[in-house]
Design goal:
The complex is a heterodimer of chains A (about 250) and B (about 50). Chain A is an all-alpha fold and about 250 residues long. Chain A has a domain of about 160 residues. Chain A contains seven helices and no strands. With about 50 residues, chain B is mostly helical. The longest helix of chain B has about 45 residues. Classes of the chains: A mainly alpha (about 250), B mainly alpha (about 50).
């Protein structure tokens, strides 16, 4: 256990992180292409129509993975921000910063596909439903977090500010995640995936959906590793330029 | 081939919209990584020349 704890913090060393990232990025990239192609082709072309929703159910293979990532990327950013505030590891701060744009895009995509799906099923593109509203607020927090980094230079103070903003926003990420369980008055249906087999969607949709979720998670991890690597190299360039110019 | 009946437009716009958004991140990540790699290479060459 002690050895494991010691090893996990070795990732906080940028050089160790870069050498490990360089080795696993190609592997992740290949896995992403395979799982996403398999999941999306299976879901789009080889699944039946739903007896109530018709073929519009095929939107699930995009909507659920992007919504899953929108929330969980925020939790990952929260964890990285807490590590930054407690242990002051720059790699964790860079990880949170690098994940934010991907999280924003996933949130936008989940809201777009949800709205398109909502029109034929609910009769409206948008409703002030608890889950939809908490998603809209989550989007605002992603935008706020990104604008802090876009408008100010990389520094520890800005790192602290963005980390605190991330912690505050996590309340809405939690609401987005659990609103379907404890708020029954909304339009949004319950979770598509559940540990209770009775509540789960049919197996015809379940397996391609799981593959799509794995594919999107791998896509996120691949992009995240590349973005962290680039960000570390950017900081390296700044240090070299400062050293050269005195 | 891409005929999903009544909801073909909704399905296609969802997939195309998501792919377009994801493509923005992929392209920006790639271009950023390429630029940084080039800058780092130039900087290392400059440092060697200075020595």
């Amino acid at each position: 256990m002690i050895k494991f704890r010691k090893n996990i913090w070795e990732f906080a060393n940028p050089n160790n992180f870069l050498s490990i990232a360089n080795k696993i990025i190609p592997f992740f990239l290949i896995l992403t292409i395979i799982t996403l192609s398999l999941g999306l082709v299976w879901g789009l072309f080889f699944t039946p129509e739903d007896y109530r929703q018709g073929s519009s159910v095929k939107i699930i293979f995009i909507h659920v993975p992007t919504a899953f990532l929108a929330i969980n990327i925020y939790f990952m950013m929260l964890l990285a921000s807490i590590i930054w505030l407690i242990r002051r590891h720059h790699v964790s701060l860079i990880a949170a910063k690098s994940a934010a744009l991907i999280g924003l895009i996933m949130t936008l995509s989940a809201m777009l596909t949800g709205a398109i799906w909502g029109k034929p099923i609910w009769g409206t593109y948008w409703a002030w439903d608890p889950r939809l509203t908490s998603f809209a607020i989550l989007l605002m927090f992603y935008l706020g977090y990104l604008s802090i980094w876009q408008t100010m230079k990389f520094s520890d103070k800005i790192g602290d500010l963005s980390s605190w903003l991330c912690i505050v926003g996590s309340i809405f990420a939690l609401l987005s995640r659990y609103a379907v369980f404890f708020w029954n008055q909304g339009l949004h249906q319950g979770p598509s995936l559940s540990l209770d087999k009775e509540e789960n969607i049919d197996n015809a949709f379940y397996f391609p959906l799981i593959i799509c979720i794995i594919g999107f998670v791998l896509l996120f991890l691949t992009l995240l590793l590349i973005r962290i690597k680039t960000e570390i190299q950017k900081r390296k360039i700044n240090i070299l330029l400062n050293a050269r110019d005195g | 081939m891409l005929d999903f009946g009544k909801y073909t437009f909704e399905i296609l716009i969802s997939y195309v919209g998501t792919f377009s958004l994801v493509a923005i991140v992929i392209v920006s990540t790639y271009l950023d990584a390429r630029k940084v790699k080039r800058d780092l290479k130039n900087l290392n060459i400059d440092n060697l020349n200075d020595k």
